[in-house]
Every structure is written in C-alpha cells, then in structure tokens.
Amino acid sequence: MGTLTVLIVLITMPHAKGTQKAVLSIRPDKQVYKEENVTLKCDIRGGGDTVWRYIWIKDNKVYKNSTMPEIHINSVNNSSTGNYTCRGQKNDSQPLELSDAVTLNVS
C-alpha cells in the first residue's frame, strides 16, 4: 500500500505543475484596420491568485514587461502587424513557457 501511494504521488505531481499555461487572446479580432484600438490579454490558466509579471513578445523580441495581464495598442498601424506571444513569471522564479503565437494583421 505504501509503494502504491508513492507511485500515485509521482505520477500526479508533474501534471499538477504543468497546469499553469499562458494563453494569449486579441480583441476585437486578429484582423483589424489602421487606427483601431487593440487589446492583448495574457491569461494564466491554472495560475490561481498568484501575482504575475507578464512578458510580452512580438516577433521573437521582448515588446513589453508589465504587471498587468492586458496591454492596449492604441491606433494600430502597419508596424503593429506581427506575431505576439506572452508568458507569466512569479517573483524571481523561471517564467512559464510561451503562449501559442497569435498573429495580428493590420490592413
């Protein structure tokens, strides 16, 4: 019975750790027109009440660091087009894996 309990703990622990994932969304849409306002939201699934620091990445370069889960791009233009990702980081710990990329197209 003791061996079985240890085995169950070893199997379930990695899954509990892997439940935190950054998910990026764009509003109003991924396809927008020049001078529209866009909001990017980084949702940490399984993050609970943790205070996160958000790292925003555009085209594989750090775009912005923030303590807020949303950033606003006012009056987008052609240079706003790109692939955006985000990740969360707690205090001095390792950051989470990058979210899946979301492509913003401005026309």
Automatic annotation (TrEMBL):
Residues 79-107 are annotated as: Disordered. This is Ig-like domain-containing protein. GO terms for cellular component: external side of plasma membrane. PANTHER family: FC RECEPTOR-LIKE PROTEIN 4 (PTHR11481:SF64), IMMUNOGLOBULIN FC RECEPTOR (PTHR11481). It comes from the Eukaryota. GO terms for biological process: cell surface receptor signaling pathway; immune response. GO terms for molecular function: transmembrane signaling receptor activity. It holds the Pfam family Ig_2. Residues 1-18 form the signal peptide. Keywords: Disulfide bond, Signal. The lineage of its organism: Eukaryota, Metazoa, Chordata, Craniata, Vertebrata. Residues 14-103 form the Ig-like domain.
